[in-house]
Design goal:
The protein is built from eleven helices and eight strands. The chain has an eight-stranded mixed beta sheet with strand order 2-1-3-4-6-5-7-8, sandwiched between helices. The radius of gyration is 18 Å and the shape is globular.
């Protein structure tokens, strides 16, 4: 923590819900990124959090853009700065899972295919939380939302895997409950050029239905149960990071039920459905471990 500046680039008084993990992560992220940063925020919770006009808690410039256009907007800002000979500014998309896994995936894929010089952070609260908790492609299996009232039957879209397939310089997963792991990954992303992608698990108290003071605990349970795997992929090599580096064996992980029990969105999950979730988690671990060995 001593390596993080005391300077605050996200000030008190924002419009986030109590216990919002995305705001915690942005506070840490901006300390790493510094003042020479331009944020691009599409329609999402953060477009509300970053301020009701004419005020904002952010001390860096923010460009609010349409739901589908965050990566394209960032690409345009980068091109304009390069035309002016300005090369020392971090261009960072800060988008939710709806604007990344679903509505915005085409512009993100386009930027990655072109190799545009930007950092893309998807804070994943696993549903369209800003509009009332509708399911997204990133909503996990079994989670109840306003559009999956008996629990989502499909699995979670693997956006980090999609980005790895684009062969961009850097892809990582992170969790707001492990801020230094996130900060270190953001530092590595800053040190590179091209399109860099970080997928950040961001627990949401109202959407996940847990008490506001439990945000950090919920994120830790996601990682410690193996439901969320921390890893990074760079230069064609993958490695586990943080607590995940010691959880390759299922016996080392905390019971998945501990993670599910604390969230109201999984209250309807019966034992057979939970066993199915465990199988899918084991399959994901096998895939990531194979990627790391390869």
């Amino acid at each position: 923590m001593r390596n993080l500046t005391d300077e605050e680039y996200l000030l008190p008084g924002n419009a986030a819900c109590p216990g919002c993990a995305a705001v915690m992560a942005m506070r840490i992220g901006l300390k790493v990124l510094g003042p020479r940063t331009i944020l691009v925020i599409p329609a999402c919770c953060m477009s509300v959090v970053q301020g009701h006009c004419p005020k904002t808690p952010s001390k860096v410039p923010i460009f609010n853009t349409a739901f589908a256009a965050s990566a394209a907007t960032a690409s345009g800002i980068r091109a304009a700065l390069e035309m002016k000979g300005i090369m020392d500014v971090n261009i960072v998309c800060w988008a939710g899972d709806g604007g990344t896994a679903d509505i915005g995936i085409q512009s993100l894929s386009g930027a990655a295919e072109r190799g545009d010089d930007l950092i893309y952070v998807c804070y994943d609260n696993e549903a369209y939380m800003n509009t009332g908790t509708q399911r997204s492609g990133s909503t996990p299996e079994g989670a109840r939302t306003t559009t999956t009232i008996t629990g989502k039957s499909e699995g979670k879209k693997d956006v980090p895997g999609i980005m790895i397939a684009h062969r961009i310089p850097y892809v990582a997963t992170a969790c707001t409950s492990y801020p230094l792991d996130f900060a270190n990954k953001l530092r590595r992303a800053i040190s590179m050029r091209g399109t860099r992608y970080i997928h950040l698990l961001s627990p949401c108290p109202p959407g996940w239905r847990y008490p506001t003071e439990k945000t950090v605990e919920v994120g830790k349970l996601a990682v410690e149960s193996g439901a969320w795997i921390l890893y990074e992929w760079a230069g064609g090599r993958c490695r586990l990071t943080g607590p995940s580096s010691g959880l390759a064996e299922r016996s080392k992980r905390r019971p998945l039920e501990e993670y599910l029990r604390i969230q109201g969105r999984f209250a309807q999950a019966d034992p057979s459905k939970i066993e199915g979730m465990k199988r899918r988690i084991d399959e994901e671990w096998e895939r990531i471990l194979a990627l790391c060995k390869g």
